[in-house]
Amino acid sequence: MSGPRGTVGLASVVAVASVALLLAPPARAVPDGPPQRSVAVVGDFGSGTPDEGAVAALVAAARPVALVTTGDNVYSNAGYAALVGAYYEPSVAPRNVLPAVGNHDHAEGIGAFDDYFAHLGGRHVYAAGRGGIRFFFLDSTVALDSPQARQRQASWLRRSLTASTARWKVVVLHHPPYSSGVVHGSTSEVQWPFGAWGADLVLSGHEHNYERVVRDATTFVVDGSGGKDLYSLGAPVRGSRVRIDSGFGALFLTATTTALIGEFWSTAGIRLDRFVLRQ
User: Fold this and answer.
1) Whether residue 24 has pLDDT greater than 70
2) Strand locations in the chain, DSSP E?
3) Residues 6 or more apart whose Cβ sits within 8 Å of residue 114
4) Residue 55 in contact with residue 39, Cβ under 8 Å?
5) Is the pTM of this model over 0.85?
6) How confident is the model at residue 10 (pLDDT cuts 50, 70, 90)?
7) 160-170: average pLDDT
8) Are 244 and 209 in contact (CB under 8 A)?
9) Are 14 and 41 in contact (CB under 8 A)?
10) What b/e sequence results for 85-106 when a residue is b if at least 16 CB atoms lie within 10 Å of its CB, and e otherwise?
């Protein structure tokens, strides 16, 4: 694939956050709201807070064909039915919820994750297609445990991306390869050549904010503002295009035969980012 995978964005303006002067696109109300029947993406959300409820309402209004998560689906032992199902089952059938595993999912007991997401059959590293997109999920918490575990997942991903004939290929892992966040930041251990292996887009969470980064013609999106306390962004990493740490929201992906379109919407109903990837 040739050319930058993130070629269209809104113009930047200056926005002041709690600890940093951030660059963000102009807030622009779009009357029709988030795109209908797209794939919604949320991360770091299972907190049972009103903010999680507001993000879930935003997603429900878009009637998505699927919900992809970037991990940390729960933050307490209240359980997945209370912290995921109560918010998202009314709008997305359980079989169409495709989660990444986060460190808090492990901390709260990975057996509960497996029980709730029974349609995965106990898999944490897997591929699934929805909405014209093939998603490739990693368990980055396990991958960071050892070089051997990391190599196993990297080898699986490279083989799977190479073998896939899908038009659009999106990698999902919890820990962000690149992030300007001040709490966790970038994860150098998983800064793999995703684009060279065939990925069009890489999604992650862990940092509770939103950021879009372009590195080596590959677009990376941190989508971790799904309901848990927000984290501030610091100095921008190289390639950072859009950075938002001032509110909660969700990403929506729409695939066509010629483009993969991403839109990040706030719970206030404002589109804060839009990008178009082309082949």
Assistant:
1) no
2) 13-16, 21-24, 28-29, 39-42, 66-69, 97-99, 126-130, 133-137, 169-172, 201-204, 210-215, 218-223, 240-244, 249-255, 259-266, 270-278
3) 120, 122
4) no
5) yes
6) very low
7) 98
8) yes
9) no
10) ebbbeebbeeebbbbbbbbbbb
Contact between 102 and 121 (Cβ < 8 Å) = no
The first and second tokens of residue 185, run together, are 């930041």
Instruction: Report how far residue 147's alpha carbon sits from residue 138's, in angstroms, rounded to the nearest whole number.
Output: 15
Contact criterion met (CB below 8 Å) for 176 and 222? yes
Pick the CATH number of 13-278 from 3.60.21.10, 2.30.30.110, 3.90.1150.10, 3.40.50.300: 3.60.21.10
d(CA 263, CA 189): 28
Domain boundaries, the chain: 13-278
Let me know: does 106 contact 140? Beta carbons within 8 Å: no
Cβ-based neighbour number of residue 50 at 10 Å: 11
Predicted local confidence at residue 123, as pLDDT: 98
Q: Are the beta carbons of 232 and 15 closer than 8 angstroms? A: no
